[in-house]
């Protein structure tokens, strides 16, 4: 990275960040400025919002920052480089083997949080790092939260995050190792659950994905059969079985599935109030529905 010359330490540090931004833009990173600022804040040990007030980089910090920018330019997710990802009010540990929680999923979690009441049982199917489950436990104290995940690597991160949040004072969640589509998993909760939330793998196999995703998010966290619905189909049946009448279901989906997922919910015969929701970019992103009283899942 070319070094800036002249000016105060702070000015020079901000120039270093700007040049890193340019380096990342040149290799096609869509959020180059944000990435450069997150990496700088990490190296300097300050919140990103305070970068304008920094004194400057020491030589060691500069070397560390430059090394991280090179790794980011090579496609490593910024969250892996700093070891954590923000999700609603939480900072969750992430790294190789676990899906990095995305801002669009915060909308689904937020939808759930507004509807879940104290004492309610909530199930997060396909929990990954635990993002949705832990956000619910954090924002709805008194909810009984279960997180189901199949991948051993993801479970290591999920257990670590669950432990950290419990140590921070949130109600402990129940981590369940198992297949979210298996009727035997959490069968003892069938008919009692107030909310099922799920961000499953949903990208159609073979669909192009950004370099960060392709090289770093686990394949079975991303792809779900030829049409991308291979996990959502059985998850709908599982949600219908878990929910009590009046319980709510929210499931994230591919932006090409804004009609298909509501149609699957409708076809199950177990849901009413079926609605599809858009993300902040205006793309169809998650479907929600309420469990009817009389249906056989
Ligand atoms: C898109 S990631 C979402 C993770 C997390 N919910 C989030 O929003 O960040 C999907 C997760 O589902 C897990 N998964 C895929 N198929 C599964 C299945 N049949 N049962 C349980 N977990 C599954 C993957 O290992 C991955 O952690």
How would you describe this structure in keywords?
297 residues, alpha/beta, Helicase, Ruva Protein, domain 3, Rossmann fold, 2 domains, two-stranded antiparallel ribbon, 11 helices, 9 strands, disordered N terminus
In terms of topology, how is this protein built?
Layout: H1 9-26, H2 32-44, H3 59-73, H4 78-82, E1 84-87, E2 90-93, H5 103-115, E3 121-125, H6 131-139, E4 144-149, H7 152-167, E5 174-177, E6 193-198, H8 211-216, H9 219-222, H10 232-242, E7 243-252, H11 260-268, E8 271-278, E9 284-291
Parallel strand pairs: 3-4, 3-6, 4-5, 6-7
Antiparallel strand pairs: 1-2, 7-9, 8-9
Helix pairs in contact: 1-2, 2-3, 5-6, 10-11
The structure holds S-adenosylmethionine (SAM).
Residues 99, 101, 105, 126-129, 131-132, 148-151, 154, 179-181, 199-201, 220-221, 231 line the site of S-adenosylmethionine (SAM).
What does the model show?
The chain has helices spanning 9-26, 32-44, 59-73, 78-82, 103-115, 131-139, 152-167, 211-216, 219-222, 232-242, 260-268, and strands spanning 84-87, 90-93, 121-125, 144-149, 174-177, 193-198, 243-252, 271-278, 284-291. It has 297 residues and is an alpha/beta fold. It has two domains: 9-74, Helicase, Ruva Protein, domain 3 (Orthogonal Bundle); 88-291, 3-Layer(aba) Sandwich (Rossmann fold), CATH 3.40.50. The strands form two sheets. A seven-stranded mixed β-sheet has the order 5-4-3-6-7-9-8, with helices on both faces. Strands 1-2 form a two-stranded antiparallel ribbon. Helix 1 (9-26) crosses helix 2. The structure holds S-adenosylmethionine. Residues 99, 101, 105, 126-129, 131-132, 148-151, 154, 179-181, 199-201, 220-221, 231 line the site of S-adenosylmethionine.
